[in-house]
């Protein structure tokens, strides 16, 4: 069996198919997960299994299901799904779930995102390490007898999402959607069909080889086609989904990318207003440490309470459970909703953007998305910059040495290293949880200050 320590990450499982992840490994992981959830529940019923469009996903998901049924649990196979559709299934059916996807990674990768019943995450500290140890040691034989049944959850998922957003003020819009040959091509038509929205589709054909561009909208190179199409179509906005369609990026009518931090601020304001109208005051909103400093400012202005946490969905969801937060956002464009079992859904965030633009247009029929979002874009930012570094810890330590000696500088090690400067600029440098990279995010009062700080940090990191 391949080395599981190399593929079991902080909050999911991910590796190169055939080298690090194969059917035997998937079968062992299925058996190990079944034993974990059976220990949680003395009368477990089933595990929901979904998969993305990668060529390897059907066989890996089938092998995983064999591992589950071998331990006596049933499998509910929901087939092709986005990751947030798997969370919908796990939440609405109150069953643990497994989603086969490597998200935005290249075609040679695959992986598994796991959750307990109710879409509660399984991360390294909440069961994933136990699964790794059980699978690595050899899963004991189970009683067998589990069955596999197919269930279509797409229509229910779409209805549920639309029911979580007030879309009554939505006006006719033209929206270009780049699915990147990923699962957005499967879910967007059903979710958007009843809405007064004209969808211009880009790359809706499901193809795990990603023939047009990588399904990673965090990389600006993968937004080029969308930006051009929005301008060419005279569209109101553009949406880009990653491979498993749990993240959504937004482009305004000018073809300019909207910061996910600004989307976090917008949705936070809407969710805080909604719960305040029902009498809930001082509601918490979670943001990770690389979101813009504008986010906690906006949350406070809207009467909420901003709570800062580490990067990663298992950390966000755990903090949401602890605080009862109504919403959470990450700068990577993961958006989490209390009413969606505290799980993330890029599609739900997209519906909030459409609704907000509709309400904005009710006040000014020609007001574009860029005007709406100006209130949420307060600082200049670099976006995430990746550096391939062999000695990640050594480079971070050197940055700490260089900046820590300066007057007025504060250092924070909640997740990687966050350095705050006296002029209001800050940066975070952290190791990727899924790839051999150091990730840098810089924010400052203006673009010149961002460029100067970015170049200084990269000069040390890449020395």
Shape: globular
Poorly predicted regions are none
Distance between the termini: 38 Å
Query: Helical percent range?
Result: 25-40%
Strand content: 15-25%
Rounded to an integer in angstroms, the radius of gyration calculated over CA atoms is 22 Å
Counted beta strands:
23
Instruction: Return the structural class.
Output: alpha/beta
Major beta-sheet overview: 7 strands, mixed
Mean pLDDT over all positions: 95
By DSSP (H or I, 4+ residues per run), the number of helices equals 14
In short:
This protein has 463 residues and is an alpha/beta fold.
Architecture overview:
The structure is a single chain. The protein is globular, with a radius of gyration of 22 Å. The protein is built from 14 helices and 23 strands. Strands 1, 2, 3, 4, 5, 6 and 7 form a 7-stranded mixed beta sheet that branches. With 463 residues, the protein is α/β, with parallel strands linked by helices. β10 (237-241) and β11 form a beta hairpin. α1 packs across α4 (124-137), α8 (260-277) runs parallel beside α9 and α8 packs across α11 (346-363).
């Amino acid at each position: 069996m391949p080395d599981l320590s190399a593929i079991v990450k902080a909050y999911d499982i991910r590796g190169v198919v055939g080298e690090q992840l194969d059917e035997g490994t998937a079968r062992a992981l299925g058996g190990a997960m079944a034993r974990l959830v059976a220990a949680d529940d003395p009368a477990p019923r089933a595990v929901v299994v979904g998969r993305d469009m990668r060529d390897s996903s059907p066989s890996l998901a089938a092998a995983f299901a064999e591992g589950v049924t071998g331990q006596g649990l049933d499998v509910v196979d929901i087939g092709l799904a986005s990751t947030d559709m798997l969370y919908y299934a796990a939440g609405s059916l109150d069953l643990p779930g497994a989603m086969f996807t490597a998200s935005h990674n290249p075609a040679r990768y695959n992986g598994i995102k796991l959750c307990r019943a109710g879409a509660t995450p399984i991360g390294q500290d909440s069961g994933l390490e136990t699964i790794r140890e059980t699978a690595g040691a050899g899963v004991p034989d189970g009683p067998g007898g589990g069955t596999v049944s197919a269930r279509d959850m797409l229509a229910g998922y779409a209805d549920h999402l639309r029911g979580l957003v007030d879309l009554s003020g939505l006006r006719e819009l033209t929206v270009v959607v780049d699915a990147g040959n990923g699962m957005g091509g499967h879910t967007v038509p059903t979710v958007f069909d009843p809405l007064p929205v004209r969808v211009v589709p880009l790359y809706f054909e499901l193809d795990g080889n990603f023939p047009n561009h990588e399904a990673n909208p965090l990389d600006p190179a993968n937004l080029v086609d969308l930006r051009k199409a929005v301008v060419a179509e005279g569209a109101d906005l553009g949406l880009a989904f990653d491979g498993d369609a749990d993240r959504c990026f937004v482009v305004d009518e000018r073809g300019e990318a909207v910061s996910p931090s600004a989307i976090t601020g917008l949705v936070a304001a809407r969710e805080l207003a909604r719960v305040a109208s029902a009498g809930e005051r001082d509601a918490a909103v979670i943001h990770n440490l690389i979101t813009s400093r504008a986010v906690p400012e906006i949350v406070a202005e809207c009467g909420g309470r901003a709570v800062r946490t580490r990067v990663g969905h298992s950390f966000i969801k755990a903090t949401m459970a602890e605080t009862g937060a109504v919403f959470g956002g990450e700068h990577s464009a993961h958006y989490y909703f209390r009413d969606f079992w505290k799980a993330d859904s890029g599609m739900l965030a997209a519906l909030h953007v459409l609704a907000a633009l509709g309400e904005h247009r009710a006040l000014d029929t020609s007001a574009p998305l860029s005007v709406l979002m100006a209130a949420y874009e307060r600082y200049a930012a670099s976006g995430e910059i990746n550096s391939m570094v062999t000695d990640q810890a050594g480079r971070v330590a050197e940055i700490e040495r260089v900046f820590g000696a300066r007057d007025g500088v504060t250092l924070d090690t909640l997740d990687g290293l966050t350095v705050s400067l006296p002029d209001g600029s800050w940066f975070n440098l952290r190791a990727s949880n899924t790839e051999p990279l150091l990730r840098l995010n810089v924010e400052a009062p203006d673009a010149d200050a961002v460029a100067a700080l970015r170049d200084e940090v990269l000069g040390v990191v890449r020395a």
